[in-house]
Amino acid sequence: MRKRLVKLIITVFALAGIVSGSAEAIDRVAFVYVTPLTAVGWSHQHDLGRLEMEKNLQGRVSTSFVDNVAEGADAERVIRQLAQAGNRIIVTTSFGYMNPTAKIAEEFPQVSFLHVSGYRSNGTNFANYNGRYYEARYLNGVIAGGMSKTNLIGYIAGFPIPEVVMGINAFMLGARSVNPKAEIRVVWLNSWYDPVLEKQAGLALIAQGADILANQSSSTATVQTAEANGIYAFSYSSDMSAYAPRAQLSGTIQNWGDYYTAAVKQILDGKGMPKNIWGGMRENMVSLAPLNPAIPPALAKRVNELKAGIIAGKLQPFAGEIRDQRGKIRIAAGKVASDDDLNRMDYFVEGVTTEFPK
Amino acid sequence: MTNESLALVQVIITTLIISGTPLVLIGLGVMVAEQSGVINLGVEGMATVGALVAVIMVLHDSNPTLALLAAALAAAMVAGVFALVSVVWRGNQIVTGLAVSLLCLGFTSWLGQPYQSATLSLPRPSEIPFLAEIPLVGTIIFAQPPLVYWSLAMALMVGWSLNNHRLGWLIRACGQSPQSLYALGHSPQWIKTAAVVFGGAMAGLGGGFVSLYSSGIWHAIPLAGKGWIALALGGLAGIKPLRLVVFAYGFGAVVAGQLALQASGSGFGLSPHLLLALPYLAIILVLLLWSRRFKS
């Protein structure tokens, strides 16, 4: 009985594949999200990108998504099902999807795979992409340095991986560029998503005198805690001003619509796989959230000038001389950190008082 | 004491109360059910249902008390289903409990989507007269949500009942020797069901506390494993709820302490993985010491 049921299900799926295959002209693109789809945050930004791409390529593609897919065995099963179901392109949007995506890309050479934030690709049907979030973090830091009265910035983050460390360092460099007394303290949550702990961490930092909070932990709890306690904060991934209209000074926003449109179009036009890309503000993959009117005009003007500099490629946040928190020179004067340096970043810059975890 | 260290002490106390109270609430329910002979692995899910119901009620302008009662009722109903399957129909307790938890987590994530991250505006808890005027810590300890004090009163009640009252004895007899209950003309099934439903209501209150007071927002998977911790603590405390309170607040204190340590900039460069494992290490340590005491 059970065997028969399994056969039946497989047949139905196969038929669905054939039917949709024969009705072609419209290609299907599927997205896999790691969290439940929420009103803000990492997965939400990818979903906005999906919708934008679908709109831009109207008549050529139809899209779908599966959310709340745990990294690991679950991800492999879901991605394989999507490939079997006849999707032309599959976009997987979490670091931990990298290996399952690579594996299934080998099994399904006719399907193209795009994966965010990883480092693997195969040149034929599996490419990666990611954003230089640190560029906007630097600008957030400039605002924080200019706005802080206590000179103490509290930074709540998930895990000390290079992407997070890069963000903290860029924030610090930005803050120190306008305020040499600025200091960052980091509280690690050991979780990408724990709003209860995030709020408590925020309260502990506020008690220590922090008057600005930043975070990399996927929830709105940080900006909401700032709002409730009369201090300032920066949003991450999405604009969260709806949750903290007074507290949110600005933020670091991820935009994927342009990339998805270009990448999907390139694949469907038969022009091969998109190149691996690490895009920043210039590519509009990363942008600065709207500036809060509480920011004085002179500071806002300066931030906008710096932003133009980053977009034009004239300003590099990680340009030497940069010393780590022990005073050791990490990037020499006149040098700019290479992408490899950034992806291996295992130190905090001067001004971060939390010791780098061993 | 400088202003900053005073503020930090206040945050530590608040955090330990806010982290400990849901463990006390859920743990008391676990304790009663376990004494009646039911290990309720569904508490994590039941508490999550309570968390969502409380949020929905508050977002629809209910007062917190009514919201918490609704949370307790909803979770008690889930517990009723669990009791029906595991006690009345004699399904496997472990499997049924896990299934209830997983189902509840999935359903609440799905049903809760429209409320994701909505800010709850709750009235500030009123201060207890006189006590709140104690310098330094008075406004912190004696201006908490009423459920904090209620949970402690409940701990006393449950302790008294389990140790000194016929009802508590019946529950314990039910767990230890159901046959003797039959002999006395009682139905162990009814007592177990009642104990499980009570446990569900307490889990609902604990979940409601988490979403209303710990985070103040709705987000999927709000308990983040607190139900499982309460399950361990409630079982560990046996028939001594005050022991449960000590464990729960101790757990809260370690959470609060490690956050405060990090925020004060003196984390000594310890790995965050290690810092965040501290509360669990503390539990294991307590367990070790406890078992040694029993041996000697």
Describe the structure.
The complex is a heterodimer of chains A (358) and B (296). By secondary structure, chain A is of the alpha/beta class. Helices cover 40% and strands 19% of the residues of chain A. Chain A has two domains: 2-131, Rossmann fold, CATH 3.40.50.2300; 133-253 and 286-343, Response regulator (Rossmann fold, 3-Layer(aba) Sandwich), CATH 3.40.50.2300. Chain A is built from eleven helices and 14 strands. In chain A, the strands form three sheets. Chain A has a six-stranded parallel β-sheet with strand order 2-1-3-4-5-11, with helices on both faces. In chain A, strands 7-6-8-9-10-12 form a six-stranded mixed β-sheet, with helices on both faces. A two-stranded antiparallel ribbon of chain A has the order 13-14. The model of chain B has no long low-confidence stretch (mean pLDDT 88). Chain B contains twelve helices and no strands. The interface between A and B is large, with 46 and 43 residues.
